[in-house]
Amino acid sequence: MCGILAVLGCADESSQAKRARVLELSRRLKHRGPDWSGLRQVRDCYLSHQRLAIIDPASGDQPLYNEDHSVVVTVNGEIYNHEQLRSQLADAGHTFRTGSDCEVIAHLYEEHGEEGGFVDMLDGVFSFVLLDTRGGRTSFMAARDAIGVTPLYIGWGIDGSVWISSEMKALHDECEHFEIFPPGHLYSSTAGGFSRWYNPPWYGGDEAAAITPSLPYDPLTLRKAFEKAVIKRLMTDVPFGVLLSGGLDSSLVAAVAARHLAAGTNSSSWGTKLHSFCVGLEGSPDLKAAREVADHLGTLHHEFHFTVQDGIDAVEDVIYHTETYDVTTIRASTPMFLMSRKIKALGVKMVISGEGSDEIFGGYLYFHKAPSKEEFHRETCRKLKALHLYDCLRANKATSAWGLEARVPFLDKAFIHEAMSIDPEWKMVRPDLGRIEKWVLRKAFDDEEQPFLPKHILYRQKEQFSDGVGYSWIDGLKAHAASNKSAILTVPGGPSVACSTAKAIEWDAQWSANLDPSGRAALGVHLSAYQQQQSVDIPARGSDGKKKKPRAIKVVEHAAPPPAGLAMEGR
């Protein structure tokens, strides 16, 4: 992923000092895009870009333009349907200067305009800022992808200028107020504010009145939708691989990618052998399971080890890059951060990962207690809407810290539409019917003739990433945090048990007394269900000590990048 910074409507537009300052702030994003930098000043506006070159490394530098440079855009993202859009735009008379997938944005805007729904035509993940200088005026718009896979923030300077950036660290010195740019929205200087461009049926504003989907479950349709989502993310001109924890989600990503590459139908010039990567403490559950999956799929597997002390030593850097104190995010970001550095050292610039499946299918262990299919569906909706604060943020920023891009096929717009249209009765955990969490996804890939995965991997119990890399990681981090207290000022969300939303805590009266975001907090919920079906090796929980009631503090304003230290209470 790249890094973008836009400064719009500066009072001192002609100042060379202003240009130097924008360049200085843009350099704070250089880790996101180490391959090239670009800056364009248009009247009282600046667009800067730090590029990670994945598509067309030779000529796709940004900002990008339309034919006469009257429309200019800076983009962080990938547009997977760019070839189709490019063909349509060429038929309409547009010409292109680069092979960049992002160049279509300027031409789509020129063709359809801000109100023409062109943002919804983009199949991919993106954050962009666009300037339109036609007709002697200057207007701008910005947009963020449907779920918020790419990070984006917006702020306002004391002189009335608007600042938009991929990360907060480029804004906090210059903005008197800034906040998260909401996913699925666009911001228009012409309209003077935000509007939502992504309006799927599941998003509904009134939660109580939301319609529960009723589409019958079709395993083959679901499988094909996911295969398409993975295959389109193999679009690359640089070396790539998959993150493989040995859990269901990452293993399915690897299985689909490996099959596609082996068939020789991918356009990439990097061969048909898939590289896979896993990280964990010595002897951790993930390392063992990932090795078995890699052997089954025939990938070139890379296994990285870290110690609890390695993780603790990295926490300050992890907080700086992820820009959050959220407990589960930091716990899971740290091993991902360490692994990303190793992956980049191997020359790999893009990886495909399994984030989003648990939110869509109710894969977290607390979903065993969902009281009805309606509430089950509402909780999946709540989880999807909040993903940009948690797993999307982690996957993007922990990898981008080292100039590595993570792609997430479970959050493909078309796949989400398919999966969120299924009657949630099929997603419910039903031990009496042999259905464990994410049963609809497991069943879709349960192919007896040509198995995607070994059966026990396909039906492996849910393991949160921060648990699966090694249980002593969480225990060691808790002990460290307990002896190094620090303030929590920017924690999104509220109380949680096993990654639930605050609302889902109402499902079980006992949960309010055990507000632990670790997946192990829900072991008691599902243990008896698993014992009816299979033998599972579940380690004993350690002592967490006395808990304090967490505070819910909404993330809208931030004074500075997080300082060193991390308090591990609350979420």
UniProtKB/TrEMBL annotation:
Q: In which pathway does it act?
A: Amino-acid biosynthesis; L-asparagine biosynthesis; L-asparagine from L-aspartate (L-Gln route): step 1/1
Active site per database record: 2
Root EC class: ligase
User: Where's the Glutamine amidotransferase type-2 domain?
Assistant: 2-192
Protein residues bound to L-glutamine: 101
Q: Which organism is it from?
A: Paspalum notatum var. saurae
Q: What is its EC number?
A: 6.3.5.4
Give the residues the record marks as binding ATP: 243, 279, 353-354
GO molecular function list: asparagine synthase (glutamine-hydrolyzing) activity; ATP binding
GO annotation, cellular component aspect: cytosol
Which Pfam family, just one, is annotated for this protein?
Answer: GATase_7
Q: Could you say which residues are annotated as the site Important for beta-aspartyl-AMP intermediate formation?
A: 355
**What keywords were assigned to this record?**
Amino-acid biosynthesis, Asparagine biosynthesis, ATP-binding, Glutamine amidotransferase, Ligase, Nucleotide-binding
Q: What is this protein called?
A: Asparagine synthetase [glutamine-hydrolyzing]
Q: Which reaction does it catalyse?
A: L-aspartate + L-glutamine + ATP + H2O = L-asparagine + L-glutamate + AMP + diphosphate + H(+)
